[in-house]
Write a structure and sequence with these properties.
Layout: H1 3-13, H2 19-31, H3 37-48, H4 52-74, H5 91-112, H6 121-133, H7 145-169
Helix pairs in contact: 2-4, 2-5, 3-4, 5-6, 5-7, 6-7
């Protein structure tokens, strides 16, 4: 599901929610481990502030969205991408979306953490960086060509950092990559 498709779903549900923020929250929650789909739907319904009727209307699209998000996180070919607005939007608006994605990722991760939560030093550094990116400032010259390049590098960093964190918390996910000898 794209940013625009998620935005359209929220519009249909008459919910004021940020697609990037919601995807960030969902990815953070999914990084903490598997949970029953019904529990994830209940958590998301609460996060989005959906009524029971809205939750029922959104159940199938959200179910597909969850499965797509988890599949992209688990994929060993690193296809994961944070859901962010298209490049046609002004850079400051896209940076706000990146900040929302990151801060909600940390929130989702925090909600799902257990007492056994343990990551490598690299993943701890990545988490600190993502938390800092969540506080992004948009006070700069948005006409600067370097800004677009910096934005692309920032999004790529987030993509790799999230995959590092996920693989730290789910070492079994990468075990499929091991060649087997017959």
């Amino acid at each position: 599901m794209t940013f625009e498709q998620l935005q359209d779903l929220f519009f249909e549900l008459q919910v004021k929610a940020d697609p990037s923020g919601f995807h960030g929250f969902l990815c953070g929650r999914l990084c903490c481990g598997t949970m029953p789909l019904e529990t994830l739907i209940k958590t998301s319904t609460s996060w989005l502030g959906l009524t029971e009727e809205q939750g029922e209307a959104a159940e199938n699209p959200l179910r597909d969205f969850y499965e797509e998000a988890l599949t992209s996180l688990e994929d060993i070919t690193f296809i994961f991408q944070p859901i962010l607005p298209d490049d046609e939007l002004p850079l400051p608006e896209r940076l706000v979306a990146v900040g929302a994605w990151c801060s909600n990722y940390i929130s989702g991760l925090g909600e799902g953490m257990s007492s056994e939560f343990e990551v490598s030093e690299d993943a701890k550094e990545a988490l600190e960086d993502i938390a800092a990116i969540g506080q992004v400032s948009v006070d700069f010259d948005s006409e600067d060509e370097d800004g677009e390049r910096d934005y692309a590098e920032l999004v790529e960093y987030i993509r790799i950092a999230v995959q590092l964190i996920f693989s730290d918390l789910h070492p079994e996910a990468g075990s499929d990559a091991e060649p087997t000898i017959h």
